[in-house]
Amino acid sequence: MIGMGVPFEAFVSQLTQQQVSLLADTVQYFADAPKLLSIPDEQGNRVAVPILPETMGSLLAAFSDGMEAKKLTFGFRWEDDGGDGTGTLVIALPNGSELRQPTVLSQFSPV
Questions:
Q1: What dihedral do alpha carbons 41, 47, 53, 54 form, nearest 10°?
Q2: Residues 75 and 89 sit within 8 Å (Cβ to Cβ)
Q3: Is the residue at 21 inside a domain?
Q4: What's the pLDDT at 68?
């Protein structure tokens, strides 16, 4: 639940370039009114994650040419800044680096 502690439990998702591209298009469409993006976890459950267009662009950049059907593993976790709805979305990229997106949860709404 948004505004109540951690918005989601840490999870891992295996995504293809096509999936990330579609998610990036969706986020771009809602750039002026950010939405929570549904990302599948390893069990196929959909997890609502607050992702901005620039962050999705970085996920898409993890793929190189010719990788359309190859799945890459991304890790998602939330670091809370004290329970007031602010924190950092941390995404572990396939190359081992981390992407950090400062986030105010109240700026995101469900799709």
A1: -60
A2: no
A3: yes
A4: 79
